Request: fold
Amino acid sequence: MTEHSSSLPVSSAPDYLSAPAHNLKGLTIDCLDKGFVRLVDYMGDDASIVQAARVSYGDGTKKLNEDRGLIRYLLRHLHTTPFEMVEFKFHIKLPIFIARQWIRHRTANVNEYSGRYSVMKDEFYVPELSQIRPQSNINKQGRSDTALDPIVAQEIVDQFSASQQQMYQEYEGYLAQDLAREMARINLPLSMYTEWYWKIDLHNLFHFLRLRMDSHAQYEIRVYGEAIANIIKQIVPVAYEAFEDYILHSIKFSRMEYQAIQRMLKEQRSLSDSELTELGMGKREITEFHAKF
Amino acid sequence: MTEHSSSLPVSSAPDYLSAPAHNLKGLTIDCLDKGFVRLVDYMGDDASIVQAARVSYGDGTKKLNEDRGLIRYLLRHLHTTPFEMVEFKFHIKLPIFIARQWIRHRTANVNEYSGRYSVMKDEFYVPELSQIRPQSNINKQGRSDTALDPIVAQEIVDQFSASQQQMYQEYEGYLAQDLAREMARINLPLSMYTEWYWKIDLHNLFHFLRLRMDSHAQYEIRVYGEAIANIIKQIVPVAYEAFEDYILHSIKFSRMEYQAIQRMLKEQRSLSDSELTELGMGKREITEFHAKF
Amino acid sequence: MTEHSSSLPVSSAPDYLSAPAHNLKGLTIDCLDKGFVRLVDYMGDDASIVQAARVSYGDGTKKLNEDRGLIRYLLRHLHTTPFEMVEFKFHIKLPIFIARQWIRHRTANVNEYSGRYSVMKDEFYVPELSQIRPQSNINKQGRSDTALDPIVAQEIVDQFSASQQQMYQEYEGYLAQDLAREMARINLPLSMYTEWYWKIDLHNLFHFLRLRMDSHAQYEIRVYGEAIANIIKQIVPVAYEAFEDYILHSIKFSRMEYQAIQRMLKEQRSLSDSELTELGMGKREITEFHAKF
Amino acid sequence: MTEHSSSLPVSSAPDYLSAPAHNLKGLTIDCLDKGFVRLVDYMGDDASIVQAARVSYGDGTKKLNEDRGLIRYLLRHLHTTPFEMVEFKFHIKLPIFIARQWIRHRTANVNEYSGRYSVMKDEFYVPELSQIRPQSNINKQGRSDTALDPIVAQEIVDQFSASQQQMYQEYEGYLAQDLAREMARINLPLSMYTEWYWKIDLHNLFHFLRLRMDSHAQYEIRVYGEAIANIIKQIVPVAYEAFEDYILHSIKFSRMEYQAIQRMLKEQRSLSDSELTELGMGKREITEFHAKF
Reply:
């Protein structure tokens, strides 16, 4: 084994896909009333995606594709491993009920503030009045677009806040009685803020963003999704644009929907619901199909 | 802690989505000239998917969805975790060059025959003449649909076979000279058969099948993909049908393609290539778009 | 591709390592005041471990190892992949603060009850008086072995309970005002019970048990760890015994500790703290070393 | 959402645990006859581990631990998540039979040179004479420490080399006949070099190194393990030292071995094999136990 500094031209990264001139470490975006997303560190940029892909394709494709085209081709055709070669590390402060949704993404690394080791801080999420909304009639898991009566909404927000303070005072009381921290915290509410370091590669981050920037995601996690998107699009602008074009704003049609569209384009007319039913769509799918146009 | 046999009605599985009457363990499908896929064991069926989903949704949706509809709804809307609750274990015999593609699927469990511990067997993949095809002109990574000249093809197959035998005899010679197995095997060709146990959940298996049943996948791995599909559709017929409708035969349109289709349906006419270019599609994307209709 | 029922003798599993005569599905163990672990389904047993290992080793080791010995050898020497071939699925009811620790184990499949879809149930963890203990002086993250004053402890438990009821009433009030479920639940306390389906393979379950049955784990999760252990030892008795011998009750010595023990055994005497310091141990490590004997 | 550059003092990294003064990107170590490990990029250093751990522990432990001590404490007590916060990306050239062992580590990202897209290069591993050794008598999967007769060894090496050239010429012949690349390569030997980008975090890299620097690992992969170790110890010197002390050169004793040592230290004498048997050790375990001293 001999050690030397490499001057190999193998898979060198092109200059014009370079990282932004200024270092973005430390860039922070505030989220909700007391949370934030802070970029702690990152490794790679658009050029790193190209660099990794070139290893797979060897000399074979160098001439055919320019780099932006290559990145877009890769994402369009599900060649996702080169996107795993870019890594981001964030410091995030977020309410626990959001942390519980977030942590379901398993292909990431996490260090969370521990309520067993340390005293939890007196910080809770108090929603804006505009987010105090009724249950959605069409979305079993979401809130409506309309608002509750502003007086009722204010009462609810006030009660949120009052109960948060009460629970925190009880927590402090338990600690003052020397109850172990791991027990004292068990009645703290899910609206309490926690914080963590979160590290993830670009491919898995795109998957996270697709799900968490979706209109069906809970508003509070969408705020974080958008903050992260705003940060990374400065680091991987070409890949992010491809993500928007081929994933985020793409649309998937089922086998039956695909058949329907082909017929509609060929026959230059709409299909009736009974024709869609004949193609194998259920009632709910027909509604979903119409909603796509 | 008290231990008791549960009679909880919690999340009980409906009878009519039950597993096939006969146990399918041991079901084997031959693949290529000497390989196979054998179902060693499995856990769960369509009913297990419903059962797991019901835990998430509680009583909330029980009335709204009947079970087939629920399974199809889950898959259509990317609620994939209930599909992780079904597990399959296969015994697979396959050429090493296919094993190298296969192993890239990381969310599976594998025990492979070891050439360090054991003597490799004298079994190699010899392609059928019909698979001896030229490099594709349109697919950088694939073979053409046309065949090579049958005489040339026969020569190639004969040479494959002769060299396999030669390399195996050299291998046996090395072993006879007491060379360590881990060294003796290093010149064996990638066409040699290996075997492994492979365990995977249904969600990740669908991902595998989507990629490996695709027309861009190498023919030899597609054969295995189809064998696996033929096995599991007997165990999870409803989920498999949903997989075909919403994943395998679904189609994804990019943001730009979606805009194009919306315009085409509205204006009841085709769009010219320059109109597609204006929407932001590249040359290659326009070709891909046309190929979808 | 031809399909046939296999009668291959390949890697057949030995009879005497067979699963328990009676099916254990549905076996339930109560945990804490309102929780439980219920075995929903499982795939494989001790024989499955041997069967998978035999694929790796081929005929090579068949004569040398009888099966119990093989399982123990595999675990002792970190050949962990055959243990991944056994799978368990549990239905678990547990407090949210425990669920938050639990979910950090990423190599498992989870379907959790959703407070966005469904109304949370009025069930909270109220600790037994004996668990109302002061902060540990030696373990920054744990509770002491001694109890708090019983009167104080009773007061704390009463306050836990009262606040839980208050928060639940507020929750019901929010729902009555038609506040969206996903918002109404944000002030519910971490002591609330949730439930989920949890599926994991034996190798990763051993890792879970090693960490969660450890004396440094929070008492409440240890209760669940022990319940799971009590269930699986009925299904994989040989592997579980090996787990106890080689993992759970094994002990690891650092490089320096190993040197110290070798000297102590050779010189048949103890080493002084300054001798241990010379070997490179820090103060804390010396304390830890003494605690091991 | 407001965006601003953060000046938060939260979890700031200490200066004296800083990265090496010079950037190590591009550092390359040659491996075997034609392979190499090249450091393409990395994110983080010893200070990053401390930084992530501080998020978990909050202010709680700041005074008790200085940073080197904290890193060592974390590793000693299996608090492994902070080590996941450091990431490395390597470009590696290695023989395929080693790549097949390597790829079994699933928690890493890989882009490999593709023989479907590109023509494989005429580069094969030819072992040094000193590695042409007989099968080990004690290690079913390894080679002996002694050498084969040098004349025999030379013959074997010559035959390796000749057959590699022959197989490559056949490969070139197939390509000249326009056989698709994905087919032409199937008879290439496992000794052929491939290359890939490989990205992994420090925790999982330690796991890789523990297994692949072990004396039971095949010599050829150990060479790569040592090359990687030599690179990363320049980036995370404190963590690497802790890895050596608490993982690589640590030793694990089973429950029975632990009992034996306790007795031996207490009674200041050795135990006989029959006493070890009484403690529950098998024959093989007794041999392994003696080998530890």
